[in-house]
Amino acid sequence: MSEIQKLTSLSNDQLKLASEVLSNAFQDDPVFSNLIPNGKERHNTLFKIFKFQIKYCLKHGVVISTSNLKGISLWFPPKNTFISIWKSIKIGSLSLIFKIKWKNLHLLRKNDDFCEYLHKKLVPTPHWYLSTIGIDPKHQGRGIGRRMLSFMMNYIGKDYKAIFLETNLERNIKLYKRFGFRNLHKVLTPGTNIYHWSMVRCPSKKK
User: Fold this and answer.
1) CA–CA gap between residue 197 and residue 207 (Å, rounded)
2) In a structure prediction context, what are the per-residue pLDDT tens digits for the chain, which is 207 residues long?
3) 3-class secondary-structure state, position 70
4) How far is CA 170 from CA 34, 58, 84, 115, 149, in A?
5) How is 141-190 classified by DSSP, letter by letter?
6) In contact, 55 and 114? CB cutoff 8 Å
7) Partner of 105 at 20 to 30 A CA spacing, among 42, 72, 116, 203?
8) Which domains does the chain have, with CATH numbers?
9) Cα 26-29-33 angle, rounded to 5 deg
10) Where are the alpha helices (DSSP H) in the chain?
11) Environment class of residue 31 by beta-carbon count within 10 Å: exposed (0-12), middle (13-18) or buried (19+)?
12) Backbone φ and ψ of 100, nearest 5°
């Protein structure tokens, strides 16, 4: 059983491995597959996107992983729920313009804008945000996702804040419901026939 831990830093090699794990985990994601049909191009794009997101989350959020980096989840606390343009530039977001095809970057940005619009509309009060959770395909089905979620439920503890997440896979909903999440909104992702579920876990009442 892989130990679940909070990461505060990663060496360059570890960062590459973590980015590879997430890009592999989301290689067959329905939305990414729709936006970037070419498999090799999609993987290369996701690798660069997730590398940036992990770097950003290490600085402004909470990165949870197994000790062997086969499972990664990115969480943002109430004060940093949404990615700041200025903070992202400081992390190196502008370099993505030169590393990713403009068409792919534009399509991903449009999808991000749609998700962020819904997110802000549905949960206007301070809350935690589970931005990403992914398991290396070779290690899926071993309970790593459940253990990372359990770790964060304990980590957040008595913060008394809601937790928000999104998914495009119906099979994930059952897992999240086991952790107290409920469906908040269901809508088709613009330009696709793929559903987008928004879910929230309400905070425990203060005693």
Assistant:
1) 31
2) 579 999 999 999 999 999 999 999 999 999 999 999 999 999 999 999 999 999 999 999 999 999 999 999 999 999 999 999 999 999 999 999 999 999 999 999 999 999 999 999 999 999 999 999 999 999 999 999 999 999 999 999 877 899 999 999 999 999 999 999 999 999 999 989 999 999 999 887 665
3) coil
4) 17, 29, 30, 17, 18
5) TSSHHHHHHHHHHHHHGGG--EEEEEES-HHHHHHHHHTT-EEEEEEEPT
6) no
7) 72
8) 4-201 (3.40.630.30)
9) 110
10) 12-25, 30-35, 39-60, 85-91, 96-99, 102-122, 144-156, 170-178
11) buried
12) -125, 140
Taking alpha carbons only, the member of 167, 165, 151 closest to residue 26 is 167
Task: Describe the crossing of helices 102-122 and 39-60 by its angle, rounded to 10 degrees.
Answer: 50
Cβ neighbors of 128 (< 8 A, separation 6 or more) are 75, 76, 77, 78, 81, 156, 159, 161, 162, 163, 164
Q: If 0-12 CB within 10 Å is exposed, 13-18 middle and 19+ buried, where does residue 99 land?
A: middle
DSSP 8-state symbol, 104: H
Round to whole Å and give the CA distance between 27 and 152.
25
What is the DSSP-derived secondary structure letter of residue 3? Answer: P
Beta carbons of 56 and 83 less than 8 angstroms apart? yes
